[in-house]
Design goal:
- The protein is of the alpha+beta class.
- The protein has one domain: 2-Layer Sandwich (Translation Initiation Factor IF3).
- Helices cover 35% and strands 43% of the residues.
- It has 2 helices and 4 strands.
- The protein has a 4-stranded mixed sheet with strand order 1-3-4-2.
- The two termini are 17 Å apart.
- This is UPF0145 protein KHA91_14295.
Length: 106
């Protein structure tokens, strides 16, 4: 599966647009990570526990987006983006989205 953030794929021609495609995941922070993050927030610096959680969430959202594109018989996703939001005080939503297409080498 070719995934690009651009409208075009170098050396490929889009022959069919399948439509919008997305992958969504919601993750909750555990109390242990919140406690560690609170202490880390006092002294500053990167909070590795949250970084790892969000990185895993992005990977899962992308995997789900790719699965949806494959179900539409697409072989590429163009204009791919991430979006995120908060649900409540300890949950994060991550969505990966783009346009599923069929692309052929030129």
């Amino acid at each position: 599966m070719i995934i690009v953030t651009t409208e075009n794929i170098a050396n490929y021609k889009v022959t069919e647009i399948k439509g919008p495609v997305f992958g969504l995941t919601v993750r909750a922070r555990g109390i242990g990570k919140d406690i560690v993050a609170s202490f880390k927030g006092l002294i500053g610096g990167e909070i590795n526990q949250y970084t790892e959680m969000l990185e895993d969430a992005r990977k899962q959202a992308m995997d789900r987006m790719v699965a949806n594109a494959k179900a539409m018989d697409a072989n590429a996703i163009i204009m791919m983006r991430f979006d995120s939001g908060e649900i409540g005080q300890n949950m994060s939503e991550i969505v990966a989205y783009g346009t599923a297409v069929v692309a052929e080498e030129e």
